[in-house]
Specification:
Number of strands: 14
Shape: elongated
CATH topology: Porin
Largest sheet: 8 strands, antiparallel, barrel
Keywords: Signal
Number of domains: 1
Protein name: Outer membrane protein beta-barrel domain-containing protein
Strand content: over 45%
Pfam family, one: OMP_b-brl_2
InterPro entries: Beta-barrel_OMP_2, OMP/PagP_B-barrel
Length: 225
C-alpha cells in the first residue's frame, strides 16, 4: 500500500514537473492606440474624432504542446475607447427640430482573458525567434468614464456600458533568449472588438441598430520566465 502511494506521488511530481517545463509565464506591458468603429446610419453622423493612447498591463502564459506551438492566455488590464462625434436632434424653444454635433470621450477599463494560439519559428538570429499569434479575448468591464466623469446627472457612467466584450486578436513579434529560462519579447497586436460596448446611443437616438465597438493597436513588451 505504501509502495502504491509512493508511486502515485512520484507520478504526480513527474507530471507537474513536465507541465511546468512546458509553461512560460511572464509580465506584459501594452501601450495601445485605441479607437472605435460604428455600425450606424449616416444620418447620425458618427465618426471618430481622434484615437487615444491607452494602457494595458498584465500576466501572460504560454503553454507549449510542441516545440513551435503554444496555447497562450493570461489576465490583462486594458483601457479602451476614444473621442467620438455624433449628431443629436432635439427641439428648439419654438418647437422646431435642430441638430447639433456632440463629442464624447469614452474610456472603458476591462479585465481581459486572451485565448490564442502562438506559432514560433526556429532561430532567425542567435537566440532570437519570431512568433505569430491569432485568437480572441474575453473581457469584463471594471470601470468607465465619459468625458473624464464617472457620474453624469446623478448616474454612474459605467452603467451605460455593457458588462462583457469579445474581440479578435492578431499579433506578431520576436523573443530574445537571455538565459536558460528568461526571455525578453516585443511585438505588435491588433485588437478588433466584435461586440457592442454601449447601448446609450441607440436609446438616445431611438435607433436599436446602432453599435459601437472597440479597435486598437498595441505595442507589447515584456519578460517571460
Amino acid at each position: 500500500m505504501q509502495f502504491k502511494k509512493l508511486a502515485l506521488l512520484l507520478l504526480f511530481l513527474g507530471f507537474t514537473s513536465t507541465a511546468m517545463a512546458q509553461m512560460e509565464i511572464g509580465i506584459q506591458f501594452s501601450p495601445t492606440i485605441s479607437g472605435n468603429r460604428f455600425i450606424a446610419e449616416d444620418r447620425h453622423g458618427f465618426e471618430k474624432s481622434s484615437n487615444t493612447l491607452r494602457i494595458g498591463v498584465g500576466v501572460v502564459g504560454d503553454y507549449f504542446f510542441s516545440n513551435n506551438y503554444a496555447f497562450s492566455s493570461g489576465l490583462m488590464f486594458r483601457s479602451k475607447g476614444s473621442k467620438i462625434k455624433y449628431d443629436f436632434t432635439s427641439q428648439d424653444p419654438n418647437g422646431q427640430p435642430t441638430t447639433v454635433p456632440v463629442e464624447d470621450d469614452l474610456t472603458v477599463q476591462y479585465l481581459e482573458i486572451p485565448l490564442t494560439l502562438k506559432l514560433f519559428t526556429n532561430e532567425v538570429a542567435p537566440d532570437v525567434i519570431l512568433y505569430f499569434q491569432v485568437g480572441g479575448a474575453l473581457g469584463t468591464k471594471v470601470s468607465a468614464q465619459v468625458n473624464n466623469q464617472k457620474v453624469i446627472n446623478g448616474e454612474k457612467t459605467a452603467k451605460r456600458f455593457n458588462i462583457f466584450e469579445t474581440s479578435a486578436l492578431l499579433g506578431t513579434g520576436a523573443e530574445l533568449q537571455l538565459g536558460q529560462s528568461t526571455k525578453l519579447f516585443g511585438g505588435v497586436t491588433y485588437l478588433r472588438g466584435l461586440s457592442n460596448i454601449d447601448n446609450f446611443y441607440s436609446d438616445r437616438l431611438g435607433d436599436k441598430n446602432i453599435a459601437i465597438k472597440n479597435n486598437g493597436v498595441s505595442l507589447d513588451v515584456g519578460i517571460k520566465f
